[in-house]
Specification:
alpha+beta, Arc Repressor Mutant, subunit A, Endonuclease, Chain A, seven-stranded mixed sheet
Length: about 260
């Protein structure tokens, strides 16, 4: 059985195997049932290593041992392996999320908060501003500011971007509405899509023809995007300024009338 090196490399990466494991597994799948000697001959893996590799694959669920003598191995169906790996990823992610959630209850986390507060305290609030790069970093910052809103939130973006952010912000927006915090939304893009999103979130959304992306929180903070295309590395500027934020929010209100 001749297997192209390109396939071996891709399968290796897809299933988190090393070269020998990949070659042995592919050979086993091709043979169906085979002994270690037969697998060594077909795969090109040294016979002295084939036994260890098969044992490792068997422990990880890529192969099973056929009852009887001589000892032979069966390759496990790729679909079963894939589903098992997906389940493992979900389990690992849940465990990691649970572990991260517990950090807030530790003394070490309290120390981190104290350090942050002590470091920020001497700085004038209007001097706080930053450039934020990366889609996830910007999204996390927006979510944090939205969750801390007290009076009013202004959102201006395109309908595709807003639909994407709803996956993360839906609960936050619901909380803002329940707390009677004003949520003003203006979106550019397909009008029918905007109507669907408006019904979904239960908000009156204004359709605009301006291609801009910014968020204003309580007329105190502004975050606006510097990049236009989703394909670019997203960059945004965050300003913590009552004067600028109020002026920006007032301009928005005038434009929306």
């Amino acid at each position: 059985m001749i297997v192209k090196q390109e396939l071996v490399n891709k399968i290796k990466d897809y299933f988190d195997l090393n070269i020998y494991e990949t070659k042995v597994w592919l050979a086993l799948l091709g043979k169906g049932v085979a002994s270690a000697g037969e697998i060594a001959e077909v795969s090109g893996v040294p016979r002295s290593r084939t036994y260890d590799v098969l044992e490792g694959l068997e422990k990880r669920g890529f192969a099973i041992i056929k009852l009887g003598k001589p000892v032979k191995y069966l390759g496990v169906k790729p679909h079963i392996i894939l589903e098992k790996m997906k389940n493992n990823v979900h389990k690992d992610a849940e465990e990691r999320i649970d572990s991260l959630s517990k950090i807030k209850d530790t003394n070490e986390y309290e120390k981190l908060e104290e350090l942050y507060k002590e470091g920020i305290a001497p700085v004038k609030r209007e001097d706080l501003h930053a450039s934020i790069k990366g889609k996830s970093n910007i999204t996390n910052h927006i979510k944090e500011t939205l969750e801390n809103a007290k009076d009013e939130v202004i959102i201006c973006t395109n309908v595709e971007d807003f639909t994407y952010k709803l996956k993360i912000f839906q609960q936050t927006i619901d909380r803002l509405k329940k707390a009677n915090i004003k949520v003003k939304v203006a979106l550019s893009g397909n009008e029918e899509h905007i109507k669907q999103v408006s019904a979904r979130v239960g908000l009156k959304i204004k359709k605009i023809d301006v291609d801009a992306k910014f968020f204003i929180i309580d007329k105190k903070e502004v975050l606006f995007y510097l990049t236009k295309s989703p394909g670019d590395e997203e960059t945004a500027i965050w300003l913590n300024s009552d004067f600028f934020s109020t002026a920006f929010a007032n301009l928005f209100d005038v434009a929306m009338k």
